[in-house]
Amino acid sequence: YTEAWDADKKSIHVMPDTPDILLAKANAANVSHKLYIKAWEEAKKKGYDMRADAIPIKTAKASRDIASDYKYKETHEKEKGHYIGCPSAKEDPKLAWAARAMALQNDRLYKKAYNDSKTQIHIPVDALSVQAAKECQTLVSDVDYRQYLHQWTCLPDQNDVIHARQAYDLQSDNVYKSDLEWLRGIGWLTEGSVDVVKAKKAQELLNDRLYRTRPEQLKFTSITDSPDVVLAKTNAMQLSDV
């Protein structure tokens, strides 16, 4: 069934100059790593000629000399001991400049003028800000806000005073517990208390020895002429091999 289709598939021919084929070839050339490094590989095969006086070599040597710690400090080492001619350190320009830079970076010296002038401020007593602060303090003051009432003087034999004293005595914790003061320091044994008696009764109820009576403690004598005993004897005689 598929033999004709398979044979037809092998006979299809696409022209090499169609736009799709050309686009695929261009894309393959763009993404090809081999073509990407082809020029570099050919340049490596030709070799190179680098002379000692070439510009890149001189640039590298100059950069190395600049970056060298020895070359960097060579001028400083040569100038050591040549600072002669200044009678004091203050007259030396470099030392004066260093002291000036240190003074600018010092936080204490930076705030010295501010700290000196901080305590020299004089404000008149009738300034608007001072008056506003005083009025605000008066408004938020607890002394002026609360007006305590005067102390009333009452007769001790008035009915409302007597009633208030009785109410205070009833609410007083000391008066409420005064009848228990005589119990302090008195020893008390738990024997005979409600909890102890309750525990003893519960123990007696749960005691197996008191709840059950053992059979050997019961006095019992079997009756020999009872119907069940006579029947048992008769059955034994009938089943006896003798």
Explain what the structure shows.
The protein is an all-alpha fold and 242 residues long. The chain contains 16 helices and no strands. The protein has helices spanning 3-10, 19-31, 33-36, 38-46, 55-67, 69-79, 93-105, 107-110, 112-118, 128-140, 142-145, 159-171, 173-176, 194-206, 208-211, 227-239. The longest helix has 13 residues, at 19-31. It starts with a helix and ends with a helix. Keywords: Actin-binding, Repeat. One of its GO terms (cellular component) is Z disc. InterPro entries: NEBU/NEBL, Nebulin-like, Nebulin_repeat. GO terms for molecular function: actin filament binding.
Show the helix and strand layout.
Elements: H1 3-10, H2 19-31, H3 33-36, H4 38-46, H5 55-67, H6 69-79, H7 93-105, H8 107-110, H9 112-118, H10 128-140, H11 142-145, H12 159-171, H13 173-176, H14 194-206, H15 208-211, H16 227-239
Main features:
mainly alpha; 242 residues
Tell me the number of helical segments per DSSP (H or I, 4 or more residues long).
16
Mean pLDDT: 81
Coarse shape: flat
Order of helices and strands: HHHHHHHHHHHHHHHH
Beta-strand portion reads under 5%
What distance lies between the first and last C-alpha atoms, to the nearest angstrom? 106 Å
Secondary structure class reads mainly alpha
Radius of gyration: 61 Å
Helix content: 55-70%
Q: Major sheet: size, sense and barrel closure?
A: none
Q: What is the strand tally?
A: 0
In the predicted model, the low-confidence regions spanning at least 5 consecutive residues are none
